[in-house]
């Protein structure tokens, strides 16, 4: 039984669970089932974020939620956002709560693995030979760049014309710390690192490239290459297996990781970890809140469950639980169970709730 893996540290850890909006509560419910299997239900505290936070506290990141996150060892997040909140002032929209919690917890390193499960190879938009055994780790800097740079806003220029302003900005220390995460990750894999920038046009990423090269001198075992972001987007489709570890800035990483998700068949399969300097992390699926299918039992919870597995690996240093969860997901897929986003002829179409139950059944074996 799985319970033999439970360690005595279980009563010392605190996990903040933030279901969020849209399909968030549905997918989080399935991940919480896994925590209960490991006897960790008493270690969970719930908080509101995004639209739910605004509805209750007129703030997409209520102080009670931020305090809970700061006092916890790890955060498990569902998703934020819904079209019904689009008319709110920008600072009150659900996405601002997500950006603020990342910044407040100093979660600067976003790890987004894009792994091709052999059982889903025909769900990819590319031919099997291009994606079989695909295993890419995209490391995205998460607390800088154009998402946080100042000045920003919508105003009126000297010609009395409305204009929008966003500022792309990176400091040397910000680049150094994410580069070190990337090189250390590459050392544990195939020792290949591709840094993605737009150094031929953007001074911000010209500095990025210069500093990554400088940091690379401390990692002579790692083969470092560079690629402009437009070429990287093309190469991910043309020859994705040329990549192993990719490191890039916030906006480029946001776009490229979503592109990479479709190589694997569905963004519903991609977990993510956002870490601080001490590996305290927030774990969430890479997909959004999908309000159009919220409450319909159609969501794929596997990315959320795999995000929970990453929590055990990176924050709690528990490789055993990581492997147990990942293997349970693989067995579920191997047995032919699929949610709508990964369904194909000859497989069994099931809903979000049942998919969670199927993973639990295989976890308990």
User: How many helical stretches?
Assistant: 12
Low confidence ranges: 1-9
Which structural class do the helices and strands define? alpha/beta
> Using only CA atoms, what is the Rg?
20 Å
Order of H and E elements: EHEHHEHEHEEEHEHEHEHEEHHEEH
Tally of DSSP β-strands: 14
Strand order of the largest sheet: 2-1-3-12-11-4-5-10-8-9
Overall morphology: globular
- Strand fraction: 15-25%
Amino-to-carboxy terminus distance? 6 Å
Descriptive account of the structure:
With 365 residues, this protein is an alpha/beta fold. 38% of the residues lie in helices and 18% in strands. The chain is built from twelve helices and 14 strands. It has helices at 24-37, 51-57, 63-71, 94-104, 128-131, 172-187, 203-216, 229-238, 250-263, 302-314, 319-334, 352-363; strands spanning 15-20, 44-46, 74-79, 109-115, 135-141, 153-156, 162-165, 192-197, 223-228, 245-248, 271-275, 281-285, 337-338, 348-349. Strands 2-1-3-12-11-4-5-10-8-9 form a ten-stranded mixed β-sheet, sandwiched between helices. It has a two-stranded antiparallel ribbon with strand order 6-7. A two-stranded parallel ribbon has the order 13-14. Strand 1 (15-20), helix 1 and strand 2 form a beta-alpha-beta unit. Helix 10 (302-314) runs antiparallel to helix 11. The protein is globular. It starts with 14 loop residues before the first strand and ends with a helix. Residues 1-9 have low confidence and may be disordered.
């Amino acid at each position: 039984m799985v319970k033999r893996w439970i360690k005595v540290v279980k009563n010392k850890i605190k996990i903040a669970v933030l279901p969020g909006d849209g399909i968030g509560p549905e997918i989080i419910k399935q991940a919480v089932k896994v925590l209960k299997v490991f006897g960790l239900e008493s270690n969970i505290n719930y908080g509101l974020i995004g639209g739910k936070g605004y509805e209750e506290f007129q703030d997409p990141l209520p102080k009670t939620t931020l305090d809970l996150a700061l006092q916890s060892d790890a955060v498990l997040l569902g998703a934020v956002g819904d079209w019904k909140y689009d008319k709110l002032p920008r600072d009150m929209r659900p996405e601002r709560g997500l950006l603020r919690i990342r910044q407040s917890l100093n979660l600067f390193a976003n790890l987004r693995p894009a792994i091709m499960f052999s059982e889903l190879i025909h769900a990819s938009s590319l031919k099997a030979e291009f994606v079989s055994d695909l295993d890419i780790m995209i490391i995205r800097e998460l607390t800088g760049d154009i998402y946080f740079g100042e000045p920003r806003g919508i105003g009126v220029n000297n010609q009395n014309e409305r204009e929008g302003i966003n500022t792309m900005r990176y400091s040397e220390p910000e680049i150094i710390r994410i580069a070190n995460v990337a090189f250390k990750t590459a050392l544990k894999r195939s020792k290949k690192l591709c840094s993605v920038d737009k150094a031929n046009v953007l001074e911000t990423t010209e500095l990025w490239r210069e500093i990554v090269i400088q940091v690379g001198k401390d990692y002579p075992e790692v083969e470092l290459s560079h690629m402009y972001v437009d070429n990287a987007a093309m190469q991910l489709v043309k020859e994705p297996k040329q990549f192993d570890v990719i490191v890039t800035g916030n906006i480029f990483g946001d776009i490229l990781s979503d592109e990479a998700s479709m190589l694997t068949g569905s963004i519903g399969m991609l977990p993510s970890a956002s870490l601080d300097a001490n590996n305290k992390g927030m774990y969430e699926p890479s997909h959004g809140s999908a309000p159009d299918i919220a409450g319909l039992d159609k969501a794929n919870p596997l990315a959320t469950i795999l995000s929970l597995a990453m929590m055990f690996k990176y924050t709690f240093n528990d490789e055993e639980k990581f492997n147990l969860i990942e293997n349970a997901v693989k067995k579920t897929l191997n047995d032919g169970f699929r949610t709508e986003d990964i369904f194909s002829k000859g497989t069994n179409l099931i809903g979000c709730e049942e998919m969670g139950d199927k993973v639990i059944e295989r976890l308990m074996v």
